[in-house]
Amino acid sequence: MSSATTTSATTENRVFEADVSRLLHMMVHSVYSDRDVFLRELISNAADACEKLRYEAIARPELLGEDARLSITIAADPDAAMLAIADNGIGMSRDEMIEALGTIARSGTRAFMEQVEAAKGKEGAQLIGQFGVGFYSAFMVAGQVSVVSRRAGSDEAWRWTSDGKGEFSVAPAALDEAPARGTTVTLTLLEDAKTYAERWTLERIVKAQSGHVPVPISLIEKPGAEPASLADGAALWTRAKSEIKPEEYTDFYRSVAAQYDEPAATVHFRAEGRHEYTALAFIPGSKPFDLFDADRKGRMKLYVKRVFITDEAELLPRYLRFVRGLVDTADLPLNVSREMIQDSPLLAAIKKGVTNRILSDLGKLAEKEPEAFAGIWGHFGPVIKEGLYEDYERREQLLGLARFTTTASGEGLRSLKDYLAALKPNQTAIYYITGDDAERIKASPQLEGFRARGIEVLLLSDAVDSFWVSSAPDFEGKPFKSVTQGSADLGLIPLLDGATEAGAEATPEVTALIEALKTALASEVADVRASDRLTDSAVCLVAADRGPDRQFEKLLAAAGRLDTAAKPILELNPQHALIGRLAAVQDEALRDDVAHLLLDEARILDGERPADAKAFAERMGRVLARTLG
């Protein structure tokens, strides 16, 4: 909550929350060139207030009184450089006003601010334009903002004022200056923003950005003028797809999604039969700032007979939370309760139908427009992959949609169908490697034997990859197998022309070295063995056949979900010159130092640090001193 600093009988001055102050500073000092976004945001808020009243009036019709037609009015005064946006929606009480205009509730807004502050110049300005910054965007064009509101059914009205410099005041408003219900936001425009009080500017912005909000919008171009209609409030989703232009979809998307980019894909359909509903969903063209909120809630809105009910009905699985849009049905009662929403078989059927349709349309897009789909996957692939371990029913479908960077893909992406089409003779598995950095895992020594045979390997660097790949048993009959786990079993797959054989039989001296290393490292590794996956490197670490692979184990340990880590297996390349030289060493003290240095080398190659940095340095010093004589 914002805190009160001074209080009188009529006016209370308060300080904005720290997050609001940061956002206001950005708005006031914004260099964003297209400040039109503020009007879209204020109209969107007004439309939400009207929809909330429409919903509350289902149970309490008296709230509408004699003014049942919900509307938004924009009133301009060019001479005074004033602009007002008024609605006759639900309105706000004093406490609601302080809460709504003095705090930030959504963590996505905090994420937005952090990104804008981290960005510089034009990039930061673009971020402002791509995210719905809400009410506070008014301070991009106004030196002072006044909000007068009366909650429907109340005999009290309140006035909120601020210059956007850290404080705001709340005071009772005279009833003859307040709307009968609803809210009026009045802006005192800055010198360089006076064009926002001109008719042509307002018409242009409303038609471009807010022409499809479900509430009529009218304009009073100057004091005393008659209202002129700018938008009729017709619900876009009720019209036939053939009647809707692409730019109309874009306008509506920007309104419903609170983003200012272009939608990457639009899904609009009407379901008929046992359940009837209309769905209009958009895949954003850029990542929403709340994409990785901890609660992972979706933003699809539920309407019943064009009446907004809630945006918390979870109409899509959480791995599609980036989708924006709505579902409108006539099969639910208008007074549907939260409990009914949670337990409704109808909504379960709608969720299934809309999810299937979105995934189906994404599949068609991937087939017909692979470049467009690659852009969607680049933004939302890590989120969609959450469904691979959450949604067993659609796992095969999601695996078909998935795109991967592989050892054979260069800069592009490959599907699993592409992968299966390129299988080598006698290859029986889909091979993958996981890690937290794509470039590092691409250089992993465990890949050497696979490259020598031209075997494609999936390079999985998203955190979610270690989870889904451990629970996805196969794709079209081919199991997933980690190249860092168990035996590679590559002997039956032929080498490429000119490639070096991996895993040739160890000499007696190397076999003796392996036995010595087993003894020296018994407390740190489960086994030491000759490798059939190394061609260039001397050593690598792998996990046992059973249990988590190396990366998954690290993630579990970091999350506190692993009590004891399994000992890794150290593999040696019998053909490596270093291993051959070490096999000839007879000095036991030197061999013990070398054993631990080899293990630490393998750890470093695996992206880890030596287990004991001091001991590592001491051993390295002793070996160098002996070598240099």
CATH homologous superfamily caption of the largest domain: Histidine kinase-like ATPase, C-terminal domain
> What structural category arises from helix and sheet content?
alpha+beta
Query: Can you name the CATH architecture of the largest domain?
Result: 2-Layer Sandwich
> Main β-sheet, in a few words?
10 strands, mixed
Domain unit count: 3
Unreliably modeled segments: 121-132
Helical stretch tally: 21
Assess the beta-strand content as a share of residues.
Answer: 15-25%
Distance between the termini: 71 Å
- Reading side by side through the largest sheet, how are the strands ordered? 1-2-7-6-5-8-4-3-9-10
Shape: elongated
* E-strand count: 24
Report the C-alpha radius of gyration, rounded: 32 Å
Helix content: 25-40%
From the 3D structure, determine the CATH topology of the largest domain. Answer: Heat Shock Protein 90
Mean pLDDT: 86
Give the CATH class of the largest domain: Alpha Beta
